[in-house]
Input
Amino acid sequence: MKQHRYRSFDGYITIVSIFIFSILLTLVMTLITGVQKSTMQVEAELALDTACHSALAEYHQELLSQYDLFFIDVAYGKEEADIAELEKHIRYYANKNLENTNFWDIVTTDASVEYAQMALDESGEILEMQMLEYMENKLGLDMLDGLKETYSFVLSGNKEREELLKTRDENQKRLDRERTPVKVTYKEEYDAETGETKQVEIREEVPIVNPAENVNQNRNKGILALVTRNASEISPVATDLNLYYSKRGRTIEGSGYLIDDHLTEGNELVDELLKILYIQEKCGCYVEQKEDSFMKYQQEYILCGKDNDMDNLKETVYKIVALREATNAAYLYSDSSKRAEISALAASVAAVAVAPHIQPMLETSILFAWAYMESLYDVRVLLDGGKVPLIKTGENWNTDLSIILNSQNMETGKSSERGFSYEDYLKIFLYMEDGEKRINRVVDIIEMDIRQKPLNEHFKMDGCLSAFWVNGFFISGHGHTCDITRLYTY
Output
């Protein structure tokens, strides 16, 4: 009986041991599986990180070299941009990395870019953000205080200048509508039939000889020959704008902002000034051309958008002349001695024409013709690399009233130590330009210059990317899978 009890107890111990061993084995296998999965997760994350950072390291070198911009060109030298090319690169780098460090036989079966932040998303704001970041790091915002005050002052006078030019145009219309004055005289004639002497009325038209007529009729005609030393040296470069972004349009769309660094409200003036300073640092103009650039007057193109250098320069000169004419006219209105000269000349013309009522109109016409000719002198100084004060005084006024009678006798005016340079005037007009047109034309300039470099003949800025969400799918030799989604950006 006693021996029987011991045998039962031994059987009980055996069953318990098997049960405990099974639990321990299950626990060990679970731990091993967990270790496998955790290790796989770590290896997969490291492989994906390495792959995506390697992809980011394939930034476009010419964009960085010429424009200090970090973007991946997902065309990779081909004619059309395709996000699938970036995905191929990520998969390749991930599998190469796993090849060298793989303990669990992990492979990347898929790496798909779910969202992409392209350079020209949000109407070009993605590109502008990098421009702003570059200029902020280079200059610091303190340097902009003086510029803000200067350009706020200049822009505040726009309405007054527009009103002055409107006055000029309306005055010219009234003069054009003015009928030719008729001078009436009487002459005694003898009538042979009656033997009497009678008075005969003689009506004679007296044309109004406006001293400003020659200037007004030829305003802006052949202007480049008047303001440049040698018009034959002006760049002849022309292009087909349909090849570039502003006319071509988008070839690939992105997902917009992926990171919270978009343009904020409240600093619009600072942001605009930084963008313009970036343009002037990276793009050439008439007085300081960029070496090896396609279009020689790049800032003028960004401002005017014509397909050739000559027309872009001409349109820019028109803008500067109009601004200078308005400010010069404002000075003439304030200078009593010059107003007296104008009044005396207008009075003599009105007296000869026997039309005293046209004297005020003649005065306005002569005043603006004089202001215009002074403006041509100013622009000659600017195109020679000199400076012109925004508001003139008697000391820095270049011309006398006789210039309106002999507009071909042009000389170069005097440069001022203080004042605005040609590039300063470009800053004003670039600031006033529509923001979307401006950034689109900046993109055109970038494409023009990048395409001159080897292996970049098909470069398109809208195919460039600065951030992306990627989903990587991994599988191990033990059948475990891993799904990782991450954001990568510069």
User: Anything to note?
Assistant: The longest helix spans residues 2-56.
